[in-house]
Amino acid sequence: MIEQQLVKRFDQLRSLYKDLYACLKEERRYIPQANVDELQAVVQKIEDTVLTIENERSDLLSLLSKYTGNKKPTLDRDVLIRFISPVYQYDFLEMYDEIDHLIHEIKRYGKENRFLIEDCLSFLDETMRGVLGAKDTNPTYDKEMKVRKIKSNNLLLSKEV
What integer pLDDT is reported at residue 84 of this predicted model? Predict the structure, then answer.
């Protein structure tokens, strides 16, 4: 009985992790385009999927806790394999390894996407500073160690533009 539930729950987890991976790939597509509406929708899907994964993992741990009597069960592969009959062990291990691979890919994609977003925001910030003529955060000093007057370079208000 427990092995059927384990296999079923891990299959659900695999499906959820695949969905999350697909969402991160979709997010990657919209980041360079700065398509805020699409990005917002994708981020909402990511948040919903992560919440569903957390709930599924929590339910799985509760199931293991009830079945094993262990108050802090683990999802360690070597521990879980004990609950699977030899007939299903190969398929379970294959599914477990696929989930493990998906988790690593999700982490990698998440880090790369965060980097791209931060890079885009930095670029936008620099562009806005140039256009609006924001003053330098590091003032320049003259020979007498006094702050040199910095000429505003507001391109929006400049006659040269």
Answer: 86
Across the strands, what pairs with 141? 147
50 has a pLDDT exceeding 80: yes
Evaluate whether residue 129 is within a structural domain. no
Which tens digits make up the pLDDT trace of 111-137? 998 888 888 778 777 777 777 765 555
Would you state the torsion angle of the CA atoms of residues 92, 95, 101, 105, taken in this order, to the nearest 10 degrees?
-150
What confidence tens digit (pLDDT) does each residue in 64-76 have? 888 888 888 888 9
Determine contact, residues 116/24, Cβ cutoff 8 Å: no
Is 136 among the domain residues? no
The CA distance from 76 to 61, in Å, is 11
Q: Does any domain span residue 96?
A: yes
Domain range holding 69?
2-104
Domain count across the chain: 1
Helix (H) or strand (E) holding 103: helix 86-132
pTM assigned to the model: 0.74
Cα–Cα dist 51/61, whole Å: 15
Distance CA 131, CA 126 (A): 9
